[in-house]
Structures are given as C-alpha cells and as structure tokens.
Amino acid sequence: YDSASGYATAVLTKSKKVFFSGQYSSPDKRLGLHSEVNAILGALMNKETEITHLGLVSTKYKDSPCNMCGNCRQFLYEMSNKYNFSPRIFLFAKDNEEFIEYDINNYLPNAWTSKKWI
Q1: DSSP β-bridge partners for residue 9
Q2: Whole-number Cα distances in Å, 51 to 18, 42, 85, 89
Q3: Are 60 and 95 in contact (CB under 8 A)?
Q4: Read out DSSP for 21-73?
C-alpha cells in the first residue's frame, strides 16, 4: 500500500550470483512479504545455498542505517544454520552513504534456537 515503508534486499552468493527483492504489503494489511526472506528464498530456490553477503535498505531510514525485524533475523539465523553459510550483513541508510557492517554472530548474538527447554 502507498504509505508502507519500502524495504529492499540483495544477497550475493559464493558463485557471484545476486538475488534481490522488495517487500510487499497488501492494501488491506493482511499480507506482508519481507524483502530479506524473499531474497534469501530466491537464492535457495535456485540451489545457491552459500550466501556470502546480504544488504538491506529502507525508505523508513533515510539518514541512518536500517535494521531487520525480528522475523527476518530469525529466518536468516535458521537458514544460515540449515545451509551452513555465514553472510556479511550490510545495513544502509537511504539518503546518504552511511552503512553498518556485521558478521552474523555479532548481528544475531542471542538468536532463539529450537532446543527443548526443561
């Protein structure tokens, strides 16, 4: 919908292929597809399981680097564990050259795991 914040993600794989996506927000606000999930799935569906870099930018963050939501962080964590990749993460500001770079362990230090709790 028109007033939704725009997000765009690109992932780079070990074989130098780039997959990119934007988010989708339905007009009735019932369905949302996040750009990070879409770009990662695009790579994985094309058998590109070694993601080396992920970049994210948003219209919501004009002057400072953006961040992933918790859902996208968890998805990235689960897919990186399942497929054994460890991407460099670049978070960009929309209207200037500011960005922050992370390795996945620094960006996701306390990720939730599916270990059984006793």
Answers
A1: 21, 56
A2: 9, 11, 6, 11
A3: no
A4: EE-EE-TTSS-EE-HHHHHHHHHHHTT---EEEEEEEETT-SSS-----HHHH
Q: Give the span between the Cα atoms of 69 and 17, in whole angstroms.
A: 25
When computed from its CA atoms, the radius of gyration of the chain, rounded to whole angstroms, is 15
Other C-beta atoms closer than 10 Å to the C-beta of 60 total: 12
Give the list of residues 6+ apart from residue 82 with CB closer than 8 angstroms, or none: none
The pLDDT tens digits for 84-111 are 999 999 999 999 999 999 999 899 877 7
Whole-model pTM: value is: 0.88
Structure confidence by residue, pLDDT tens digits, 54-85: 999 999 999 999 999 989 999 999 999 999 99
40, with CB counted inside 10 A (0-12, 13-18, 19+), is buried
